[in-house]
Write a structure and sequence with these properties.
By secondary structure, this protein is of the alpha+beta class. The protein has helices spanning about 20, 115-120, 150-165, 170-180, 200-205, 205-215, 230-245, 255-270; strands at about 5-15, 30, 35-40, 40-50, 60-65, 75-85, 95-100, 110-115, 130-140, 185-190, 190-195, 225. The chain folds into two domains: about 5-140, Apoptosis, Tumor Necrosis Factor Receptor Associated Protein 2, Chain A, CATH 2.60.210.10; about 165-270, Potassium Channel Kv1.1, Chain A. It is built from eight helices and twelve strands. The strands form three sheets. Strands 2, 3, 4, 5 and 8 form a five-stranded antiparallel beta sheet that branches. Strands 1-9-6-7 form a four-stranded antiparallel beta sheet, with no helix packed on it. The longest helix is centred in the C-terminal third of the chain and has 17 residues, at about 255-270. Pathway: Protein modification; protein ubiquitination. InterPro entries: BPM1-6, BTB/POZ_dom, MATH/TRAF_dom, SKP1/BTB/POZ_sf, TRAF-like. This is BTB/POZ and MATH domain-containing protein 2. Pfam families: BTB (PF00651), MATH_2 (PF22486).
Length: about 280
Amino acid sequence: MQYLTDVARSKDLLKVVGHSVIKAMCDGEFLMSRKWAVGGHDWEVHLRPKDHSEGHERPVTLRLVLISEARGGDVKAKLSCRLVDPTGRLKPSKENSKSHKFYKSGDYSGAIQVTGREDLEKSGYLVDDSYTVECSITVLKKAPARNTAAAAAATAMDRDAAMLPSLELHRHLGELLQKGTGADVTFHVSGEKFAAHKAILASRSPVFMAELFGGMKEEASRHIEVKDIKPAAFKAVLRFIYTGTAPELDKKGDGGTSLAQHLLAGADRMMMLRNDEPKLVK
């Protein structure tokens, strides 16, 4: 999917305290928000408690003002607003919005009516002589153009990534070993039983390949006895075969060292060690 455009959006609350005093302001006077950075540009929101441009009603209105330079020729943005109840008792009022194209610093949008002043005073949004307006600024951004070479390189990277094995593979194999689903061989180690899968063992160990599919007596057997290794170490070896990890090597103390020695001996016996895989360091 190709995105031809993108947007940056930011939302904040403007709280107006002292409504009864603010009514003494002259028509057209406004309250100014702090500087608001959205979409790489700086903005202000001007709240007019008595907008003289709307006739006799004198509603509460908002205007969006661009205070930074309009880089790239013009900036397209939208201001949305609604009354909210910070206590959550009332649902937000109907949202009103207005879009505008800004050409230079100081440009402002048309007025957006938040509410009629008389309606505000009768509503439940005015509490303790204060009310709160939720404002949202949305700025249109053009999606960056991709040249042919970059697009081809990205496509190649996506293709190569699709060919990589899933990073979740080791986890899935570990869960398969733990649950034993579909297991077709059982190892008996000093009285304990371990279910496993012949195909996975054979794919990871030449010893198992020979024992399970090479004509040896174990090939047709579903039960194999393993000697000279402790059950805990054999369990760790199986996990090492399925997931390539050996958490037991991280154990501290003599117990951990002894178990690690058995693990490495078992892995060595099964021809599983490689130069880049864990080794015991004393």
